[in-house]
Amino acid sequence: MIDRRAALAMVAAGLASPLRAAPLRYTIDPLPVARNIWVVRGKDAAIDGANGGAIANISILRTTVGTVLVDCGPSLRYGQQLKAAAEALTGMPVIRVYLTHLHPDHIYGAAAFDPSIVAVTPALARSLETLGPSFSDGMYRLLGDWMRGTEFAAPGKVLGEDHETFGDRRLDLYPLAGHSEADLAIVDNETGVLIAGDLVFHDRAPSTPHADIGRWLASLDRLGTIRHRAVIPGHGPVDSTPSAAIDQTRDWLSWLRETLDRAVAEGLDPVEAGNLPIPERFAALKAARYELQRSVAHLFSRIEEQALPRVDLKR
Ligand SMILES: [Zn+2]
Fold it and tell me: What residues does the ion ligand 1 have nearby, CB within 5 Å?
């Protein structure tokens, strides 16, 4: 029999806590986009302990030789659940996992896969090398147990080609940049679906922690010239048209750049800039105020430096 003292000791050791939560589980619910393509929608929100970091969209493609994933979620736990759900859906093992860019909500699920099938562009491989292992620390702080066991291994496949073919399916690869140093967009030839990674957001305000807005706008122009029929954005609902989400992302980024430039020119401080009014046409964008304030934090000092060069460095 376990007496009260023994029970308390077990609780203290975390063995029998009456408050112990059920094991954390993600909801992996693939939605059809086109023939043999599905999207697992992320929450259109910030990363938090309720969503376990599952905020990015993940794409699943069935080919005649296996299953292809584009991005793989925030953690080992997510990657494992995604692998099981994707293989049950397609009846085929996962043979390729593309990572679109370095943000943690897209890549740490790679821990669930053999690194030899995880593919990145040369530019992303370089970015990931320079980040080092400490990059995941922030996610552990934010998400705690959701991240347990998540270790990021260097991807085993560096993409030298402009496309890959898996049985009946050809995927065209577009290495671009601007949302981050290295962004990959992919077009599925058969269905004309553009999988845009975080170059495109839809009805969810773009996030800018590693953004170069000028390069990002140029990449959006490039995406606009690529033949495609529909877009799976990195965040937000699928765009069943070729251009609505691309145009919305461009509109937000152009407005953001103008607004921050003007705020610096007018001498606003960061708090004032983060509280500037957001135009009515962006009312449908989730997390708009949150992302404006984060963008001020990311971009404001850089714009100030350009607008007001340091006098002590001037000759
Ligand atoms: Zn991102």
Answer: 103, 198
1 within some domain: no
Q: What's the total number of domains in the chain?
A: 1
Q: Is residue 136 part of a domain?
A: yes
Question: Helix H segments across 51-117?
Answer: 76-90, 104-107
CA–CA dist 4, 242 (Å, integer): 65
Q: Is residue 274 one of the residues assigned to a domain? A: no
Reported as a single tens digit per residue, the pLDDT across 12-31 is 444 444 444 567 899 999 99
Using the mean position of ligand 1's atoms as its centre, give its distance from the Cα of residue 264 in Å.
25
pLDDT of residue 89: 98
Q: What is the pLDDT of residue 158?
A: 98
CATH of the domain at 121: 3.60.15.10
Domain limits for position 160? 24-244
Please report whether residue 9 resides in a domain. no
Given a contact cutoff of 8 angstroms between Cβ atoms, the answer to whether 194 and 231 are in contact is: yes
For residue 184, the CA-to-ligand 1 centroid distance in Å is: 11
Going from the Cα of 208 to the center of ligand 1, the distance in angstroms, rounded, reads 8
Per run of 10 residues, the mean pLDDT along the chain (length 315 residues) is 47 44 86 98 93 97 98 96 98 98 95 98 93 77 91 93 96 98 97 98 96 97 97 98 98 97 94 97 96 93 78 56
